[in-house]
Write a structure and sequence with these properties.
Elements: H1 2-24, H2 38-45, H3 49-57, H4 60-70, E1 75-80, H5 82-86, H6 98-106, E2 109-110, E3 141-145, E4 148-152, E5 157-166, E6 170-175, H7 182-185, H8 211-242
Parallel strand pairs: 1-6
Antiparallel strand pairs: 1-2, 3-4, 4-5, 5-6
């Protein structure tokens, strides 16, 4: 009985020692966060399949991920939902060149991080990754009204529908319309009409010798010769008469 009691006590002491040792070990440090991946963020959010396809096919996703992980500038993405793309006219995307598709996606990206409150103090037109913000190129204007953020491209007016993701370096906001830049979608002015040519020089037609003129000249000469013969005859007759 004493041996069993000692054995039991030994087991309890061993168990308590093991628990104490385990608790005394420091907790494992959390794994460092992985690099930011824009496509994974959109995939997790759902309803952005068309945007994901475009951002991958244009290689803009690689540019965004590299910029986020290699710098501290941050980015802001206006993310059109699948329903926003479905509201485009049929064939709109298929009618774009590869370069225009890149510019379209870059037009939805601002080269710095903006929280919703930051939009209250931005200067318009806001510059996007597409470049030139002059009228007719890639201008984007953002205004606020209370908690509402309004966006206009000159062709499309929409609002921020909600925050998809934010981490103080990347902000993703859902928009319910695709932002159409003027450079790609604005109607092009008609080509100027060619300048009118100068008046054509009139060529003078050569007139043929008038037959009536020739006949007039000939008849005049004939009449002259006739009178001359008559006068010569009269003169000869007068001389003959005087000589008798």
């Amino acid at each position: 009985m004493n041996k069993q009691a000692l054995f039991s006590i030994s087991l309890v002491l061993i168990f308590l020692f093991h628990c104490t040792t385990t608790l005394a070990q420091p907790a494992a440090a959390p794994a460092p966060p992985g690099p930011t991946n824009i496509t994974k963020i959109l995939e997790k959010a759902g309803q952005f399949t068309i945007l994901i396809r475009l951002i991958k096919s244009t290689k803009v996703a690689d540019q965004v991920n590299q910029q986020l992980n290699d710098s501290n500038n941050g980015l802001t993405l206006f993310a059109p939902s699948d329903s926003a793309f479905s509201n485009l006219k049929a064939g709109t995307l298929n009618g774009l060149t590869d370069e225009q598709k890149v510019e379209l996606i870059q037009f939805h990206i601002l080269p710095n991080f903006l929280s919703l409150t930051n939009f209250q103090t931005v200067s318009n037109p806001v510059r996007t990754q597409a470049g030139d913000s002059r009228a007719g190129e890639f201008p984007l204007n953002v205004t606020t009204s209370g908690n509402q953020v309004n966006i206009t491209t000159g062709l499309v007016n929409t609002t921020v529908g909600g925050t998809v993701y934010t981490d103080n370096q990347l902000a993703v906001y859902q928009v319910d319309s695709v932002l159409l830049p003027q450079n790609i979608f604005a109607p092009k002015p008609p080509a100027p009409a060619p300048a009118p040519s100068g008046p054509k020089a009139k060529t003078k037609k050569k007139t043929a010798d008038s037959p009536s003129g020739s006949s007039t000249t000939d008849s005049s000469g004939a009449v002259g010769h006739s009178w001359h013969g008559i006068l010569m005859s009269i003169g000869a007759a007068v001389i003959a008469a005087l000589s008798l």
